[in-house]
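To: structure subgroup
Subject: Chain for Friday's discussion

All,

I'm putting the inputs and outputs inline so they're searchable in the archive.
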Amino acid sequence: MVIGYHKGTEMGRCTKIMARDVGRSSMRSGGSKPGWLKKADTVKPPWEPEHSLFFLAILLAVVLTAAFFFSPAHAGQSGSAESPSEGNLSAPVDAGGAETASTILRRETEEKKAADSAFAVTLYRQNYILFVTYDSDPNRETYEFANVDAPENFEVKFQLSLKILLWEKMFGNKNGNLYFGYTQRSFWQLYDKALSSPFRETNYEPEMFVRFNTDFTLLGLKHRFVSVGLNHQSNGRGRPLSRSWNRIYAEIVAERGNLVVSLKPWFRIPENERDDDNPDIEKYLGYGEVTAAYGLRGHVFSLLFRNNLRGRRNRGAVELGWSFPVTHNLRGYVQYFNGYGESLVDYNDASNRIGIGVMLSDYI
């Protein structure tokens, strides 16, 4: 099953770009204007109801952070010694009063140790290599329209994600760390020997964000941190294959036992219509995503979910992952993706891909 499958949309989007650059008259057939060039289809409303979800999430993040800072518990801990992780994070306690392991705190502690040296680079999101992936229906129309060789079903997919701490405790209250993050996701046609195994698509995603550690329980979840950041994502290509967008986002991360959940809403920063290579990207990637990971006896099961929250033409994506121990320092990884936005060039063309490889660092 493909979520909101809507094949052929990419051709229309590329044609709009070409029409904007070389003149609409060259694309008309029989003197009539194609449907995708109608003004009603290209004018975006000044405000969409889904935008309010982003601001509600931002407001929730601000309220939760403020509640933590001004809570009596936090005031009583202000003069206490710092914990091994970030100073204001406390380990969870069970009913008997003994400390229990926290998935997030354990990773925070490891990163803290690795970041003791100046400008140390630590892992950020997932880092993996899928040596073999199979897409049941690659987006060949986009490449053929751009006079580029169409991709094959089999390819390699890998992701590299790192971050660096730029400013620790920037507000002087043992909290508020400024980070620079960088994530790169590539799709490599390794098995297409006829074309010398080219890289089909690479997405570059630098970002700056401030992370506030929290320590309170809400709805049965222990809330660990809130981040607010600025994100840029692009594929570094020329038209008609160019894709890019800029976002402001917030992220709330919480846990319960071996379960870690992340809510990440975003708001796209508007662009000039002439410079916008993907004016309808929110219709496919939506206004946020939910991520969850669950650890069980050395195995990690993960879920990523996106949806545009539209009744008509509902679109979204689901990514399922399973990482498992192979040796003491090597983990296998199986990933399944179904929907829109696996890569920027395919943002409005649904993918249905499964792959297997190795996991270098998981969510937990």
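Points worth raising on Friday:
The radius of gyration is 22 Å.
The helical segments are 9-22, 39-42, 51-69, 72-77, 103-114, 140-145, 282-285.

D.
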